[in-house]
Automatic annotation (TrEMBL):
Region (Disordered): 150-261
InterPro entries documented for this protein: Calret/calnex, Calret/calnex_CS, Calreticulin/calnexin_P_dom_sf, ConA-like_dom_sf
Major subcellular site: endoplasmic reticulum
Disulfide bonding pattern of the chain: C54-C87
This protein's name: Calreticulin
Upper taxonomic lineage: Eukaryota, Viridiplantae, Chlorophyta, core chlorophytes, Trebouxiophyceae
Membrane topology value: Single-pass membrane protein
UniProt organism field: Symbiochloris irregularis
Length: 288
């Protein structure tokens, strides 16, 4: 439910939502439907008592003249949606047009890269101008233009469909070749090419350090560990000290010594023929 409250710094009452993370809406019918034959200017004033963290403060200009305000729902059809929306990384002043195509399909057209929302607690005036004479738009905040351009170029999906589309009945010929290059059929793998050679080998120049302790384990029982006083071998089993790194191994090393590996200079990997131009590849040239 809404509450009526006079915000700090204002002398007039305003609507306040009472719960977070809920959808709120309020509607009122105009005296008569708008006929935007010559264009349209939408404008409203907004003051946020608290900065938006996840919520919208936009207006929807509803489509149906038969609509009753008490029947407002999320999916109530609208013609234009305009105003701030902020949630997480989303921060935008929406301008969305629900456009009816000649085939009767209605689709939302969203302004690409819309301006950012002012998140302070000051009063701001949001204005959207839709010009019918040159099919342009202008989004203003506090009278300053923030985004302007073409209705036909700056909305997604495009208001006007493309002049041409792929023929849905067309099929790729079975003999169609898509690869401009092909392996050279005359190429042969060199006789000395070893596909089984490993990528790395042991470093032949490496030598085991003289201090290396072959028979010394890398881990030993912790000499400082003690069996807990409440340890019960019948219930807990034989107590074993935790293992720690062998301090004798810190300087040179312990255990089986293995030389480090280095890139194999003889490694070549799997052989493949060089690519040449594909004689069956054709570039489709269209004439208009």
């Amino acid at each position: 439910m809404f509450e009526v409250e006079t915000p700090e710094g204002l002398n007039t009452p305003a609507l306040k939502v009472t719960e977070k993370a809920r959808h709120y809406g309020i509607a009122a019918k105009l005296g008569k439907p708008l006929k935007a034959v010559n264009g349209l200017v939408l404008q409203f004033e907004l003051k946020l008592a608290e900065s938006l963290t996840c919520g919208g403060a936009y207006l929807k200009y509803l489509s149906s003249g038969k609509f009753e305000a008490t029947g407002l729902k999320d999916d109530t059809p609208y013609t234009v949606m305009f105003g701030p929306d902020k949630c997480g990384s989303t921060n935008k002043v929406h301008l969305i047009l629900r456009h009816k195509a000649p085939n009767g399909k209605v689709e939302e057209k969203h302004l690409k890269t819309p301006p950012l929302v002012n998140l302070d607690k000051k009063t701001h005036v949001y204005t959207a101008v839709l010009n019918a004479d040159d099919n342009t738009y202008d989004v203003l905040i506090d009278g300053e233009s923030k985004k302007t351009g073409s209705l036909f170029e700056d909305f997604e999906p495009s208001i006007n469909p493309p002049e041409e589309i792929d023929d849905p009945k067309d099929k790729k010929p079975a003999s169609w070749v898509e690869n401009p290059k092909m392996p050279d059929p005359k190429a042969k793998k060199p006789a000395d090419w070893d596909e089984d050679a490993p990528r790395t080998i042991d470093d032949p120049d490496a030598e085991k350090p003289e201090e290396w302790l072959d028979d010394e384990p890398e881990e030993v029982d912790d000499p400082e560990a003690e069996q807990p006083e409440d340890w019960d071998e019948e219930e807990d089993g034989e107590w074993e000290a935790p293992r720690v790194a062998n301090p004798k191994c810190t300087e040179a090393g312990c255990g089986e010594w293995k030389p480090p590996t280095i890139p194999n200079p003889a490694y070549k990997g799997k052989w493949s023929a060089d690519l040449i131009d594909n004689p069956d590849y054709k570039v489709l040239i269209r004439s208009f």
